[in-house]
Each structure stands twice: as structure tokens, then as C-alpha cells.
Amino acid sequence: MRVSVAGAGLGGLALAQGLRGAGIEVDVFERDPGIVARFQGYRLVLDPTGFQAVRDCLPERWHPLLDEIVMDASADQLVLDPQLNEIGRLPGCGRTGIVVDRQVLRHLLLTGLTVHTGAALSGYDVLADGKVRARFERRDPATADLLVGADGVASAVRGVLSPQTVPTDTGVRFVIGRTPLTGEFDDLSKAYGSKIAGDGVSLLLGAMRFGTPPKQAAERLAPEVTLPDIGDYVRWAMILPPDASMDDLTPQDAVLSRMDGWHPQLRALIEQADPDNSTLLSIRVVKPGERWAPGPVTLLGDAIHATSPTGGNGANTALRDADLLRRRLVEAEAGRRDLLGAVDDYERRMFEYGAEAVRSSLDRLAAFAPEV
Ligand SMILES: Cc1cc2nc3c(=O)[nH]c(=O)nc-3n(C[C@H](O)[C@H](O)[C@H](O)COP(=O)(O)OP(=O)(O)OC[C@H]3O[C@@H](n4cnc5c(N)ncnc54)[C@H](O)[C@@H]3O)c2cc1C
């Protein structure tokens, strides 16, 4: 069996690793010109299901490295005022999970894979023999037994497979960035995992502390893996009201312009942010609707169930998809079921929990952007 995966995000790469480990031929096609072409270095919180899924997709020899580059996290999920006084609690109980840097995890997942960068998928054709030929903007087509669209919220694969499924823009925008974690920010520790409620905006902070710097951990535990050289940082994200104007401000200055009179350490955190790692994003969701007719093309992750980041479940769900699809394809490769049956079984389950993930993320969005 040969599989083409469009999109080198967490979901596509986890699937590709899992297939590679099972001896299935897999190529990954990524639109970006390079793997670090744009900011993607925020921290993620994985739940036990998401973490186990990515672990199961990776070779066992890398499990010690994976364990070394994550940290356990728990957060009280308080609501604080801009002077860091407690004024409430977020809905639901305290959140625990496993914190990972997205870019570090991506580098681990990339190791040993055949990834073609600068390969933007533009469409595909299902061939008479049941195979699928993916077309790209600037490279030759590639034929495989299965094409997996793991190409994110604006998925080009979904545009052909399920054109009626389109993203909904919630209107909510947020600025995200990161700042090196130093002793100067000690007073902020109770704010990590909490929400700071300002005038029409919410600021969310999360600390990323590595047990061992990832590059050194890889050198010691798995020399064939090259991980980025990054230190501890605080990830911050400000959720803006739907009609927020950015004027001509940089994302960082737009955040500061809404923090007049805030606690000095909060302002310092934004002032000292790495400007190359701050960006403005929109919250768009994709709700899985009607299933498509069975065939050699399927979708995974944000391409079919994009959640609001306030749900903290998009990566978890993409990784769950990757592991589930991997298992079904391994069964097909072993002759225990046919390929279309394997894909059908994956899609049936994925549609159910994917729709629930989008619903619950939108429920949680209200706690951060009440006007939506
Ligand atoms: C700020 C922020 C914080 C988050 N925090 C959490 C969290 O704590 N927990 C959690 O579970 N989730 C979190 N998420 C969500 C999570 O990051 C995403 O749900 C997850 O990365 C989706 O993975 P994916 O592989 O489906 O898609 P993506 O990671 O979006 O990857 C898609 C890839 O496809 C490529 N691509 C796009 N179009 C094409 C094309 N035509 N051809 C080829 N390639 C293409 C893109 O360049 C990209 O590399 C957060 C998201 C954000 C933005």
C-alpha cells in the first residue's frame, strides 16, 4: 500500500510516522516552502488520549525522548483582573495535561519521513483502477492507494471531497506570541493556565518549561533526531472582541494598546516578546457534516473538524484520528480487511468524536469571548 498525506501538521506527520513504522510506504506533501517557514511554536496541552495516540504512532525507541521533552501541567483555571487579583473561576474543574511545544513535537515527528515541501496540493483525480492521483501547484502529480487530506482548516482536499463543508469564521481574533521565561516573571506563576479579564479582552498565559532543553535531550537519547534549540518561554494569547480594529499596529503593539494600567509584569511580558513569534490569527471552525461516498480519499484533523483553540482539543483530536486511521490501515495492509472498509470504519468513528470536539470547543469559547 502507498499513502499520500497532504499537510505536515501534527496529524499528518503522526499518521505518516505510524505508517512508516508498520512498513507502509508514505509520502507527505507540505505547502510551506520549509518546515519552519512560519510561526508555529506555541505550546499545546495534550490530554492522555492525545498523548497516547502520538506515542503509539512513534517508534518505541523514541519514547524516552518524547517523555523528556514534555511536562506535566495542572492549572487552577482562575479568572484574574489585570492586577492579578482572583475574581472568579473558569467553568469546569482544574485542567491537567501534558504540555508540549508544537514545533519541537513536529521536528520529532518529521524524523525519517519523506516530506516534500513547497508542494501545495491543488486537486486530485480518482483513477479507473481505484487509485488516486494528487495534483500540485508546482510539482508532478503523485499516485497512491489512499490520499489523506491533513491540510488544515482551509483544506484543499476537502474542497474537492466535500465542497459543502466550509469553515465558519467565529469573528473572534487573537494575537499569540511568546516571551523567554526569566525570573523577572515570577509573580505571574498563578496566572499560568488562567484567564486575565480586561476591558473587552482576555489574556491567556501558559508556561513551557523543558526538563532538559530539547536539542540536548535528542543528542543524548536519540542522536538521529534533531530538535530545535529553544529554552523555556511563556506563551501568551489575547482574545480580541469581534470588531477589534488593529489600526496599523503590529500584533504585539495591538495587545499593549489594550493593557493600559495593567500589572507591570504583564506589560513587560508582552514588551519582551519575540517579535518574529507573534502573530494575529482568526478563530475558524469546521463542523463535520454529511459523509461523502466511500473512496480512496479521506480527511483528518482540522481539515474536517477544526475546533476553537479555547477548547484545547484540536491537536488531541487530530492525533486521535492519526492513530485510529493508522490502526485501520495496518489491518488492511495485513489483509484483515479491505482498504475502503478500513477507511469507512475510521470515518464513522471520527465523524462522531470530531463533531463533539467542535461543539465542546465552541461552548468554551463563550467563556473567553462572551459577545460571540
Ligand atoms: C494558539 C493555538 C493554541 C492551541 N492549543 C491547543 C491545545 O492546547 N491543545 C490542542 O489539542 N489543540 C490546540 N490547538 C489546535 C491545534 O494546534 C490544531 O488543531 C492542530 O495543529 C491541527 O493539526 P492538523 O495536523 O490537523 O493541521 P495543521 O497543524 O493546521 O497542519 C496542516 C498543514 O497542512 C499544510 N497545508 C495547508 N494547505 C495545504 C495544501 N493545499 N497542500 C499541502 N499542504 C497544505 C499547512 O501548511 C500545515 O502545515 C491550538 C491552536 C492554536 C492556533
Description of the structure:
The chain has 372 residues and is an alpha/beta fold. The chain has one domain: FAD/NAD(P)-binding domain. Helices cover 31% and strands 26% of the residues. It has eleven helices and 18 strands. It has a seven-stranded mixed β-sheet. A five-stranded parallel β-sheet has the order 8-2-1-12-18. A three-stranded antiparallel β-sheet has the order 3-7-4. Helix 10 runs antiparallel to helix 11 (339-365). It is globular and about 65 Å long. The mean pLDDT is 92.
Can you give keywords for this protein?
single chain; 372 residues; alpha/beta; FAD/NAD(P)-binding domain; 7-stranded mixed sheet; 11 helices; 31% helix; binds flavin-adenine dinucleotide
Q: What is Rg? A: 21 Å
Task: Kindly state the percentage of residues in helix.
Answer: 25-40%
Please tell me what the overall shape is: globular
Question: What is the total number of structural domains?
Answer: 1
Please tally the β strands and state the result.
18
Biggest sheet architecture = 7 strands, mixed
- How far apart the termini lie comes to 46 Å
Please tell me the overall pLDDT. Answer: 92
Strand order, largest beta sheet: 6-5-14-15-16-13-17
CATH level 3 topology = FAD/NAD(P)-binding domain
Structural class: alpha/beta
H/E topology pattern: EHEEHHEEEEHEEEEEHEEEHEHHEEHHH
Please count the helical segments. 11
Unreliable spans = none
Strand content: 25-35%
Distinct small molecules = flavin-adenine dinucleotide
Known CATH architecture: 3-Layer(bba) Sandwich
What's the name of the CATH homologous superfamily? FAD/NAD(P)-binding domain
CATH class designation: Alpha Beta
